[in-house]
Design brief:
Number of domains of chain A: 2
Number of helices of chain B: 12
Number of strands of chain A: 23
Strand content of chain A: 15-25%
Number of domains of chain B: 1
Low-confidence stretches of chain B: 361-375
Strand order of the largest sheet of chain B: 8-3-10-1-16-15-17
CATH superfamily of chain B: Aminohydrolase, N-terminal nucleophile (Ntn) domain
Largest interface: A-B, 37 and 47 residues
CATH superfamily of the largest domain in chain A: Aldolase class I
Order of helices and strands of chain B: EEHEEHEEHHEEHEEEEHHHHHEEEEHEEH
Helix content of chain B: 25-40%
Strand order of the largest sheet of chain A: 11-21-20-18-17-14-13-12
Structural class of chain B: alpha+beta
CATH architecture of the largest domain in chain A: Alpha-Beta Barrel
Number of strands of chain B: 18
Structural class of chain A: alpha/beta
Largest sheet of chain A: 8 strands, parallel
Oligomer: heterodimer
Number of helices of chain A: 15
CATH class of chain B: Alpha Beta
CATH topology of chain B: Glutamine Phosphoribosylpyrophosphate, subunit 1, domain 1
Chain lengths: 501, 375
């Protein structure tokens, strides 16, 4: 039986009166949507290949192209939606697991959008960040429970290794392999210029980027790709990846087509072989095993680097985080279920895990109840879309946030969610040299710096409005938040009042 | 209507303090006259005083001042106190009935010392033992509230204008080494006397004018260390921060100022390396105790008085000195009414701690080293 034809979700509309037949669209589309037809002298469009990434639209010099949602429709059905039906068509044809990229796009509640921020009126003054100092520097790492003095009574610095970031924003882990060399170069340069950190993800660290080590977090994931002593020692911090918000419970999966040249060498695996990380770390089947890996990594780096443990936000996250805090981790990074990915099974991406807002609020509360909040810093991730999300996350209890998708969008990603195909037209989620070269790392770094500079200023404006002039005073300051349209249970979990309360 | 503690009430205020560097005592009427000048900075919904060195005959005992809403609360509280303490003396606190002050609770005073066996069993240091029993009463006994628990000091407070509260408590009958006073301008009625200030724990007492924007960050951070904020007021959380950083962590008052009103990073970066390292350490290690938003506070403690403004100086505060006397108040008028010709009068800068201590060798005075390091 042949495949069932699925009508494309999007169509390319070409304005023939504007089109000059320059054929740029044909050259720019790696998916082969546009093809010059010599017999008709026109350009044919194969909409079935279109990922709706807007590359042709943006490159068309005469604005002759646009992508529209197809009018093609099934009989209206609130239960069996077009998506539900076409997914069955696909699986019935192939017998395969549905794959998706980037974060969960489904219409579940976004709690950040149902939280509102406070401002000062009358009883205390708001502060203008253009006229007064406004501080967003954060230190990530455990705080001491006691002080020590030398024999003259002078305070001794007894802080364990910390990460110092000039704003409460880090770049999330994105591996070399899943994204291109140029992406890593842009992230590394921007992190250095901004005084923050980028994260190698699980694909190792390209030899060219060791020079950015002071602004690099290196990851140790279940596949242990690219992990060796120099790698660990080159970094500012080490992150153990236990899980990822987009796909809790499973490991990374990088198709062999992306394992080329340098990617293969950096990962320390053969070219063309699929890089499949095991679902668990096979030396961590329990919390006491985690402690041993943390200790091993600290031993390997002479106790000079903070160790981050990254976990996906799952139902029991508060208890899990409590265990991690008691196991020698210095920082816990929690990744919410809307977090991005280069490839994940659709069902897992859309159905497993919980929102970062609820996970963060629960973890922060539990760590405080247990008296261990000072032992760790918390990084929140999993769909931080703008500066207001960051302000809300910090007020809920995060020390900092990390951003992946937002950073890629700044680099040109149009969220077509086709990373798994490896033919990203923007040179981001691809290893094809002709596509990678489309991304200019210098320009990319500049755009990342612009984005975070703008966000940092917006954070300062919101802080100033609340009368807060240093980010520490926002951390866990839940009185500054109110819910809107949330039920009593949701408010209780978030630990905030309702608007008007 | 909800009582203070069930809701958070922003307040404006007046504060005043008098400190004697010598053995010459300060009369209660002086502090009343000082705070009375700033009548318009209060709205009749709260006033109070703290006096140090007022109980020389009982100076080795903890003086508990307690509000009771009813006799059952008194019975319950006294049962707890009797189980933990040797009660040396107990009595009603003497008051004067005046028309301006009404609806007062029962107000009792106990001079106590922990029972040695109970203290040994608890494996706690004596002051921690006292703190925990104060929290136990305040959290578990409905209608009872220990609002003063230091040695040789006491807090007197209530709902009313501060000068009326002073007359009500017959403050002119007390002589002190240090007095602080507070007139409150809450935006809403506190509903009970416990909401008035000063707020005190052990011998730490705080009067505060301002509304801190870091409140919930500070509250949630200090509660991790076993404190319970029952009043939802700035003054309460600031008192606990002082208790935590001074008594439990062991920071000096000057170091505490560098934590709660920390210099800006841009200022720290201009400091000499050694000083810079200390400030970087304090800001990082005790980041959750940073206080932002407007405040001017007077912190009374055994043998000393500290004044501190927020780092932007968003509240007025003036210091005056005359011979062995130090005067600190929200307004200069409150100093000049009792000392028309001070030797010097100045306004401390934002974040610049002014610390006076009884012992001459420990007197630190007006923090010159900080002055240059401020922006």
């Amino acid at each position: 039986m042949q495949s069932i034809f699925v009508y494309p979700e999007y169509e390319v509309e070409r304005n023939e009166s504007r089109c000059t037949m320059c054929r740029i669209c044909e050259r720019e589309c790696s998916n082969g949507v546009h093809r010059f037809n010599a017999s008709t002298g026109k350009i044919d469009c194969d909409d079935t290949r279109c990922a709706n990434c807007h590359r042709c639209v943006e490159m068309c010099p005469v604005r002759a192209l646009k992508i529209v949602k197809s009018g093609h429709t099934f009989r209206t059905n609130a239960n069996w939606t077009a998506q539900a039906v076409t997914e069955i068509f696909k699986q019935a044809s192939t017998g395969g697991v549905l794959l998706s990229s980037m974060g969960n796009p489904e219409e579940q509640p976004v709690y950040f959008d149902r939280i509102l921020i406070n401002a000062s009126q009358v009883t205390n003054p708001s502060i203008d960040p253009l006229r007064e100092p406004m501080e967003t520097r954060v230190f990530l790492g455990p705080k001491p429970s006691r002080i020590e003095r030398d024999k003259n009574g002078k305070l001794i610095n007894n802080l364990k290794p910390q990460l110092k970031a000039e704003m409460p924003i880090l770049f999330s882990a994105m591996s070399y392999g899943s994204v291109s060399y140029k992406v890593h170069e842009a992230l590394a340069k921007a992190a250095g210029a901004l005084g923050i950190y980028y994260n190698t993800g699980e694909g190792g660290l390209h030899e060219d980027f060791y020079k950015y080590g002071d602004h690099t977090i290196v990851q140790v994931a279940s596949g242990r790709f690219g992990v060796h002593p120099d790698y660990l020692n080159s970094a500012a911090a080490i992150e153990i990846k236990m899980g990822q918000g987009a796909k809790p419970g499973i490991g990374g999966h990088l198709p062999g087509t992306k394992i080329v040249d340098d990617v293969s060498r950096t990962r320390m695996i053969p070219e063309g072989s699929d890089a499949i990380s095991p679902a668990p770390h096979h030396d961590i089947y329990s919390i006491e095993d985690l402690r041993q890996l943390i200790d091993s990594l600290k031993e390997a780096t002479d106790y000079k680097k903070p160790v981050i443990v990254k976990v996906a936000a799952v139902h029991n996250i508060a208890a899990i985080a409590g265990g991690i805090a008691r196991s020698g981790a210095d920082i816990i990074s929690i990744d919410g279920y809307r977090g991005g990915t280069g490839a994940a099974p659709t069902r897992i991406r859309n159905n497993v895990g919980i929102p970062i807002e609820l996970a963060l609020a629960s973890v922060d509360r539990r760590l405080r109840e247990e008296g261990v909040r000072d032992r760790v810093s918390l990084i929140a991730a999993g769909s931080i879309r703008n500066s207001a999300d960051i302000v809300k996350a910090i007020a809920l209890g995060a020390d900092a946030c990390s951003i992946g998708t937002a950073a890629l969008i700044a680099l040109g990603c149009h969220l077509c969610r086709s990373c798994q195909t490896g033919s990203c037209n923007w040179g981001i989620a691809t290893q094809k040299p002709e596509l990678v070269k489309r991304l200019d790392a210098e320009e990319g770094a500049r755009r990342l710096i612009n984005l975070l500079t703008a966000w940092n200023h917006e954070i300062k404006e919101m802080m100033g409005g609340m009368g807060i002039n240093s980010i520490e005073s926002l951390k866990g300051n839940r009185l500054m938040l109110r819910g809107i349209g949330l039920n009593a249970k949701e408010l209780e979990i978030l630990g905030i009042g309702h608007a008007g309360e | 209507m909800k009582k203070e503690g069930e809701i958070r009430i922003p307040s404006g205020c007046a504060i005043s303090g008098i400190f004697s560097k010598s053995d010459r005592k300060i009369g209660g009427e002086d502090i009343i006259r000082s705070i009375a000048v700033m009548h318009d900075r209060s709205n009749g919904l709260g006033g109070g005083f703290a006096g140090y060195g007022i109980y020389p005959q009982y100076k080795d005992f903890y003086a508990f001042h307690v509000f009771y809403e009813n006799r059952d609360a008194k019975k319950e509280c006294e049962a707890i106190l009797e189980s933990l303490y040797d009660i040396i003396n107990l009595s009603k606190i003497p008051v004067r009935k005046i028309p301006e002050i009404t609806d007062e609770p029962l107000i009792w005073r106990y001079f106590v010392t922990p029972l040695p066996s109970k203290l040994a069993d608890s494996q706690l240091d004596e002051r921690e033992f006292v703190v925990r029993s104060v929290f136990r009463v305040n959290i578990t006994v409905r209608g009872a509230y220990i609002f003063s628990s230091g040695k040789n000091m006491g807090v007197f407070k209530g709902v009313g204008f501060p000068e009326d509260i002073g007359r009500f408590y017959r403050l002119e009958e007390y002589e002190a080494d240090c007095f602080t006073a507070h007139g409150r301008y809450p935006t809403n009625t506190p509903g009970w006397w416990g909401g008035a200030h000063p707020f005190a724990l052990l011998d730490y007492s705080v009067v505060h004018n301002g509304e801190i924007s870091s409140y919930d960050a500070n509250r949630r951070a200090i509660e991790v260390h076993g404190y319970k904020c029952t009043l939802q007021t700035d003054t309460e959380v600031i008192t606990y921060i002082f208790d935590y950083l001074n008594r439990r962590i062991g920071l000096s008052f000057r170091e505490i100022a560098s934590v709660i009103a920390a210099p800006f990073w841009q200022t720290i970066e201009k400091m000499e390396p050694e000083e810079r390292q200390i400030h970087e350490y304090l800001r990082n290690a005790f980041e959750s105790q940073l206080i932002t938003g407007p405040f001017s506070i007077l912190v009374g403690f055994e043998g000393g008085l500290m004044a501190l403004n927020d780092r932007l100086k968003l509240r007025s505060m003036v210091v005056g000195e005359k011979e062995d006397r130090v005067y600190i108040a929200s307004e200069e008028s409150a100093i000049r009414v009792i000392e028309p010709a001070p030797d010097r009068v100045w306004s401390p800068k934002g974040g610049e701690p002014v610390i006076f201590e009884k012992k001459a060798d420990k007197e630190e005075n007006h923090a010159v080293d900080f002055r240059l390091s401020r922006i």
